[in-house]
Amino acid sequence: MSYYDVDAILTDAQKVPCTFELTVPGLGHLEGNPGAEVKEGTKLELPLWLAQMLAITPAGTKPGMITLDLPDSLSQKVTNALRADPRTVELRSLAPHFFNLGTRMLDLFEEEELSDLLTESFKLRAKELADHAHNPRGALGEGAEFLQGLDENERRLFRATHEGAKAVRAWLVGMQKK
Amino acid sequence: MALPLPPGLTPAEVAFLCEMEMVTIVPRQRLDGLELLGGSIPPLQPPRRTDIPLWLALLLKRQNRANIVPPPWLLPASLANILDVETEMTEAFSSPPPLPPSAKGSEPISPPFQPSCTADASAHALPYHWLEVGEVLLDAASDDFEEPDLVRRLIRDIREVRLSKLRAGVEVLDAGGGVQMNGVGGLEVAEGRAFIGGVIDNLRKLGASKEQTRKEREAEEERNGYSGAGADDYDDDMEL
């Protein structure tokens, strides 16, 4: 991931649920009462870049100032749905950068099962995606619903695959016209 | 990114490269031998069959000075055979043409330099530029085929079968797995590159943390192994 990668920045800006491990004065505006303090044990949603730094910075006797939780888009409900059939889950509505977020979460949590599940889901969805990408009508065909649920990475993959097929088709047609 | 083109060759570039392939023609007019940078062209004497590069053959064909002899694998019977093989083999692609036995002392010749589209090529295997040569010949010299429409249909069928195999291959992609891609043609590579490359890149990202954990564990085990005493190793393993 490069420093100026917009997708990486947007991934970092997604919010994750955190629990404060210590009382912080003056941060009350985060939960809607300015001037007050954030008490220990408060649950708040913080952007990933901030949460990650706070979670790994030791505070006193605690390993981190906050503890991270898996975001809603990777909750039990979603993983169950992915396990049942990855192709029917609308990842885009869960998180626009679903797989990037998943990768970041896997860096922070050691969840082998989640890693395997995401890999399997990606493969199955990629296969479905390729079938749609070879459809000359592109995203307008019958797969429109599935294609709207693609996350950013998958969209880019879809575009690239579609371009490849389109270029070959264009070459074939162009040659016959000559 | 200076060029708006994706990495790899575009179909037009692949097709341009395939014009280097040698094809067999039956000349209709005499032509003296040509000394070209890419090699010399033998003198053409009708009706003696001669092997010349595809680009020259196309030029002569358009001027109606030669007929192109379709390579044996482009005949309906061989294409139908290959299609059967492709449909039966659900995992791999049909094998590329066999390499000729190399003469002693010389380097072995491999596909780009091995004449695979001439009249004496193998009839049971698709060469590297099969799709491009097939389409170009069907377009420029369809009157040299006995059943151009049948050939065209068979080529489309084979292409579909192979493309779907290329797509299905992503399912077995994994850290240790791979797709058998022997015998995939130039144009097919150009078409599938973006998809396969993209899938592998994404899978690599998803698997990166797992890979990291595995490496750490292996390094740990290695350290324990070097530390010597067997009893200690057991204790360490239990902690893991």
UniProtKB/TrEMBL annotation, chain A:
Its main location: nucleus. It comes from Eremomyces bilateralis CBS 781.70. Belongs to the GINS3/PSF3 family. It is found in: Nucleus. The keyword Transit peptide does not apply. The GINS complex plays an essential role in the initiation of DNA replication. Component of the GINS complex. Keywords: DNA replication, Nucleus. Residues 4-56 form the DNA replication complex GINS protein PSF3 N-terminal domain. One of its GO terms (cellular component) is GINS complex. Residues 74-172 form the GINS subunit domain. InterPro entries: GINS_A, GINS_bundle-like_dom_sf, GINS_Psf3, GINS_Psf3_sf, PSF3_N. One of its GO terms (biological process) is mitotic DNA replication initiation. This is DNA replication complex GINS protein PSF3.
TrEMBL record, chain B:
CDD domains: GINS_A_psf2, GINS_B_Psf2. Residues 119-204 form the GINS subunit domain. Residues 10-69 form the DNA replication complex GINS protein PSF2 N-terminal domain. Pfam families: PSF2_N, Sld5. Residues 207-240 are annotated as: Disordered. InterPro entries: GINS_A, GINS_bundle-like_dom_sf, GINS_Psf2, PSF2_N. Keywords: Chromosome partition, DNA replication, Nucleus. Component of the GINS complex. Belongs to the GINS2/PSF2 family. This is DNA replication complex GINS protein PSF2.
